[in-house]
Amino acid sequence: MILRKIFTGARIFDGEKFHDEKALIVANGRVEAIVSCNGLPEGETILLDGGVLSAGFVDAQVNGGGGRMLNDEPSAASMCIIAEGHRRYGTTALLPTLITDTADATAAAIEAAKDAVKTHRGVAGLHLEGPHLAPARKGAHLAELMRPVEDKDVKAFIRAREAIGTLLVTMAAEQVTVAQVRELSEAGIIVSIGHSDCSSEAAEERFDAGVRGVTHLFNAMSQMGHRAPGLVGAAIDHPSTWCGIIADGHHVDPKALRTALRAKRGEGKLFFVTDAMSLVGSRKDSFTLNGRTVRREKGGFCSKLVLADGTLAGSDVDMASTIRYGVTYLDLTLAEALRMATLYPARFLRLDGYGHLSPGARADLVHLTDAVEVNAAWIDGEAA
């Protein structure tokens, strides 16, 4: 039996373009078609009061939300709580992200993700940001836990990818060999360079070996000089390399982001990530990260999160706010800002059926007001 839902009353953004005065037909949790409002089929009609209906947001880097940090409790329950915390802001698929931690915590996160992805409640895989990072670019991570990739790690990552489906690993170029990158990439693991002080040449070698992305462009990496382009220069210049960006007004100056958006070789290769911590979706003003207090400082476009020494420690931004920031400060059209939160991250993560509203795609949806505030979200066509 086909159970149809018919969404009308809003502009529809299908991942590529807008449709006006059309209806979205959802059948059994999948997109069936975008059609004229004349002669609609039978089904449950959901009348939306203006605004925009889009595919739900996809976030490749979420450390926490809803008052929960994955590092504090790397369990399937934590992952689902984090996903629920971000759902109210339109994110319907995310990768819970474990920052640099012990081997036991990493193993626990991998086991948790195996179960969490089966719930179909927004956990789309796992992101391991460390421990294979460079102490010289540690950011808020613990340098004493950082180390090079070993053969046993490669084998463990490959087993994890086979069980989880989508596995993103962030590594410093200094901590992983070209041969290891090639083996990981050929096994379907999404390898990203981040927290790295590498040269542009070292980055390019790894891009050509299969590195797919760069983690939070500009932050915690070698910067671009006119004779030493660093990781930033290599990432912007390389045509097939994707780059996540944190657009919250604190992590990167908007002038740098606008420059990267204009300069990046390869269409649609920059996408939004939140790098969010537990305070998103929570009323608390502080939390603990690896035994250190992180506090919320109000001001600017949104609050920022800092350690006692002022080091930024993730973000306090949600994906809907990031889209508003893109339109307001980065000279993006609403269509391009939406792509950077839906279509592009889904393509980066190779998540088929996510990030667009083509026939057969998942009916993961978000309804936005004209001011890009979230009214409602759906997963598999069901209210989330």
TrEMBL record:
Residues 53-382 form the Amidohydrolase-related domain. It is an enzyme of class 3 (hydrolase). Zn(2+) binds at E129, H195, H216. Substrate binds at A140, N219, A220, R227, H251, L312, A313, G314. Its EC number is 3.5.1.25. InterPro entries: Amidohydro-rel (IPR006680), GlcNAc_6-P_deAcase (IPR003764), Metal-dep_hydrolase_composite (IPR011059), Metal_Hydrolase (IPR032466). It comes from Rhizobium gallicum bv. gallicum R602sp. GO terms for biological process: N-acetylglucosamine catabolic process. Transmembrane segments: none annotated. This is N-acetylglucosamine-6-phosphate deacetylase 1. It comes from the Bacteria. GO terms for molecular function: metal ion binding; N-acetylglucosamine-6-phosphate deacetylase activity. Belongs to the metallo-dependent hydrolases superfamily. NagA family. The keyword Cytoplasm does not apply. Keywords: Carbohydrate metabolism, Hydrolase, Metal-binding. The active site is at D275 (proton donor/acceptor). The gene is nagA-1. Its cofactor is a divalent metal cation. Binds 1 divalent metal cation per subunit.
